[in-house]
Amino acid sequence: MNSRAALVIAMLCFTFRVDAQTSLSYLLDPFAQCCLAGTCECGGPYKHDAEINDRVVEVIRVDKRFRDTAVWVTTTRGFVTLRGCVRTPAQKNALAQVVKRQAGVALVWNEVAIGRKGK
């Protein structure tokens, strides 16, 4: 057998091996398994976190009740965590209520601190 034919055979074997491994790799990913089974949305529960986070940040930014606050937002799997400082307990409660109403928010962890001016 000449070297050219051996090279073609080796390339074909490698290609088939890669295809076989690639087609079975989804079995290791539980989100891919549920997606293929039609039991959940493809992309897993983290797929929409960035857009949820952006939406929450924007609603806080435009709400005049929170103008004098310092709040940062993180979102994981639709669970929104609020941290930072607000001036009053009423602001803290209102902040949680506004965030809970946003699309895609599954749970709000309101960890903001209540501070006083000058502290």
Write structural notes for this entry.
The protein folds into two domains: 3-37; 49-114, Histidine-containing Protein, Chain: A (2-Layer Sandwich), CATH 3.30.1340. Helices cover 47% and strands 18% of the residues. It has four helices and four strands, in the order αααββαββ. Strands 1, 2, 3 and 4 form a four-stranded mixed sheet that branches. Helix 4 links the parallel strand 2 and strand 3. It starts with a helix and ends in a 5-residue tail after the last strand. The relative contact order is 0.12.
Give a quick rundown of the structure.
The chain has 119 residues and is of the alpha/beta class.
What are the key terms here?
119 residues, alpha/beta, Histidine-containing Protein, Chain: A, 2 domains, 4 helices
Number of domains: 2
CATH architecture label of the largest domain: 2-Layer Sandwich
pLDDT average, as an integer?
Answer: 82
Largest sheet: 4 strands, mixed
- Cα-atom radius of gyration: 25 Å
Structural class: alpha/beta
Apparent shape = elongated
Question: Can you lay out the helices and strands and say which pair or pack?
Answer:
Elements: H1 3-24, H2 30-37, H3 49-62, E1 70-76, E2 79-86, H4 89-100, E3 107-110, E4 113-114
Parallel strand pairs: 2-3, 2-4
Antiparallel strand pairs: 1-2
